[in-house]
Write a structure and sequence with these properties.
By secondary structure, the chain is of the alpha/beta class. The chain has four helices and eleven strands. The chain has helices at 2-12, 60-72, 233-245, 273-280; strands at residues 46-54, 75-81, 98-102, 114-120, 134-139, 155-158, 171-177, 191-196, 212-215, 226-229, 258-262. The chain has an eleven-stranded mixed β-sheet, covered by helices on one side. The radius of gyration is 20 Å and the shape is globular. The model is unreliable at 18-25 (pLDDT under 50).
Length: 281
């Protein structure tokens, strides 16, 4: 019965009849519709209403619950002291909020967020801001691997160095790294921009599908189908505005920055999708 229901649902969604044009972006809502700016269940908060608490003796679920309770009380600015590098802190926040962590976060910090502005004074572990939708996240020190995996929007900034696979499967937004990145940064990138002020490790942009990577230092080597593009005046103007906002500069100066784009030899990816769906269904 479950299989029959699954097949019925796939027909209702048009998955058997839709024409896959590829390389397009489906529009789910209009940004001009103000009711779509916030979630219907989002809390009304006041940025001038500030709260802080000490997380030293709390586990991660308790910290996240306390953040939610404070938002429900209308606090728009929350400071968390002594986060202690616990994993999964600040996740799933779909609200306007000024959130400050005074210390370091462990794995999967501030993932699945849509809207808050987060500042972290310490370091972050693997997969920080995974699947981030909107807002800003600024880390003052270093970050682990898979930084900003599958990010879809907003600005994700690490002022220090970042591990391997930065921005893997990036689908939008901007990732900025003040230092250097590890191997396979931009792996399978699909949209958005990545700015690396320092050096980039091996296989930069491997199998990238679209999007743009800017590098201010040296590139160890490029991955499959990643090629150097032409830097335009618009690129430089955007880079200067963006990096100035976070008080960062490229290692070798703006005039020597490199632009990496997809060679677009792998664009038959979409053509395989109908076959993949048939296998799944």
């Amino acid at each position: 019965m479950a299989e029959l229901n699954q097949e019925h649902e796939s027909h209702r969604m048009g998955m058997h009849t839709e024409q896959l044009a590829g390389r397009t972006q489906q529009v789910f809502f209009s940004a001009e519709e103000s009711e779509n700016f916030t979630y219907p269940y989002a809390f009304e908060v006041d940025f001038n209403k500030r709260a802080e608490f000490d997380a030293a003796d709390l586990d991660a679920p308790a910290v996240n619950l306390r953040i939610r309770e404070l938002m429900a009380e209308g606090h728009g600015t929350i400071v968390i002291k002594n986060p202690g590098a616990k994993h999964g802190l600040g996740v799933g926040i779909l609200n306007r909020l000024q959130l400050y962590f005074e210390g370091s976060l462990g794995y999967f910090g501030v993932g699945l967020i849509d809207g808050p502005n987060v500042r972290i004074s310490g370091r972050v572990g693997w997969s920080c801001a995974e699947n981030m939708m909107a807002g800003t996240v600024v880390i003052e020190k270093n970050a682990g691997s898979t930084f900003g995996a599958a990010i879809r929007g907003g600005d994700l900034v690490c002022k220090g160095d970042v591990g391997s696979r930065t921005g893997i499967d990036q689908k939008g937004g901007t990732i900025i790294v003040g230092g250097k990145t590890g191997a396979f940064s931009g792996f399978m990138m699909q949209r958005g921009r990545m700015v690396i002020c320092g050096d980039a490790g091996k296989n930069l942009g491997d199998s990238m599908y679209d999007g743009t990577i800017y590098v201010g230092g040296e590139i160890e080597d490029l991955g499959v189908d990643a090629v150097e593009g032409e830097m335009t005046d618009l690129d430089l103007q955007w880079l200067k505005r963006k990096l100035m906002a976070y008080d960062l500069e490229p290692k070798n100066g703006f005039e020597n920055m490199k632009k990496i784009v997809a060679g677009k030899q792998l664009w038959n990816y979409d053509n395989l999708e109908p076959t993949e769906k048939k296998l799944v269904l």
